[in-house]
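Late entry, written up from scratch paper. The run itself happened at the end of the previous shift, but nothing got recorded in the book at the time, so transcribing now.
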Amino acid sequence: MVHYLRFFKPPKVYDSANGAPSITTVITIQNDLGDLFLGSTVDVEAVLLDTLSSVSLQEQTICEKQVKTWQAGDMSMTFTVRLRKRYSALRLHMRTNVGDEADTIVPAVIPAWSATFGWGTETSPQAECFLERQFIWPGDLSTVLRVWEQTGNSIACHVWDAAIGFLLLFHNLQMPKVLELLESAQKSAQKAGAQLDRRIIELGAGCGIVGIAISRLLPLHNIILTDQTEAIELIEKNTKSRHSANPRIQTRPLVWGSHCTAEDDFNHVDLILVSDCTYNPDSGPALTETLSSVASASPEVRVLVGMKRRHASEDVFFELMKKRQFLVVEKATVILPHMPSFDGDQSSVEIYLFEVAK
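Output as recorded:
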């Protein structure tokens, strides 16, 4: 099972009574839904980075480090790190001793980076309620995929396990039909050029990680990331950051079963991405209605669905897809990172490729 380092309380700077500076934060290690805590013993390291020391995050100066041990049964952990001096701009990197981040696309416990904070005139004493995830981009160990997520209880704005499954799929591309689809889509976009844009739509994009990842595989496509209105601000934070900025990535509010996005967005669509959107069977009819609406405007569209099965009622989604004339043409099971000596059964993400019946 994948676990995620999260901030219960974002890091904040303090001056003690004798003037000694320090920072404090409260962290946790949970699964994607936040309803299970890591039931293993691991060392957790807090690494304070001076963000003014270098433009590159990898080259920033380490100010201080502190290591504490997370015990099975823990639900949170408080770090208080004393500093030798005040810093204008800091970031806090939380990581564990599980796997080597430099060599692992997705470690079993996914690290977190705080927003910038410090004593500077342009920084706040406490980091904003966001944290950053960083993933080595498949096929290019020098490139990092970076996305922000919220630190609060809104699970809609977190990275979910199916997104991790997609990243691993994009690394291995062990689905021949998906590989063929991506190659064909790239060729069609090259052929269309400026005359006819080709599109990819993601439904329920959350923080936008899957859509941002696919934009690197298909750089000539226009990527439209959709979700409910309250999620759009976070998606735009990710798509407009200097690390992920891409004029071909757009955002749209879209409520399934309705047409809150412009009608012509559904034209010229090669692929629809759906990541961890099937867990609520009550939303299945609206979701499949929206998929059907896109297919009506783009009959050759394919749908790539990633899901981590959480209960048997998710089978309803497949029944609804069949009624809408969507057929499964390929399936793969992606094994998620795991600590076999520590916690439970190995978990996986199922990836399905659908096309419209002819």
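The mean pLDDT is 87.
(Scratch paper discarded after transcription.)
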